[in-house]
């Protein structure tokens, strides 16, 4: 069940991360801080690479398991390319306002990807026979999410912080992620090779049991993190460990060079 949850979460990522790239690319023109600009360029490069790698891997995974994702990915394309696009016929002031709203929405989403990245770095998948290649791909992505977890928040606060901005961003981000993941799990469960529970109650029970074993994220922690994001004193560095993420990425680099 945990593999279906992870795959469902990743169903959203290719289109979502391409949207990150588009928004950050536009925001670059409004940022004068050269250090922040350089950090944003690195973020854009990482997100573009994540989108390509996960799109290719998941296409293969779903095809092998008899899951047709055409309708679902089409809906994700509509959400991130149509619903969340900034209308072209806007005044400069209104366009900037839309841009700031999207930057805060990205910061809220990145809060969850950092939590998920921390889980990926510390789960117990190998103990239960997970495919080493897929584990490495997910952990690589998770490590980069933890490593750059402050960037989206730093960019959003550069354009202006405030409790209302955080609240509305989280109010949009949390239902979006949960609804997409639940729908994705149901989609994967329709695959001809799926042995996962079909009912809603059974699905949540299975996820809770997997979380107890370290196979899925702790949903209680995710819920508590919603309040953390909108509360005073929030700092993305409180999620995960930069040292652990950088150490894993360094090992991955050495392994790839050696091979």
From TrEMBL:
InterPro entries: UCP07580. The chain crosses the membrane at residues 103-121, 167-188. Keywords: Membrane, Transmembrane, Transmembrane helix. Pfam families: Metal_hydrol. Signal peptide: none annotated. It comes from the Bacteria. This is Metal-dependent hydrolase.
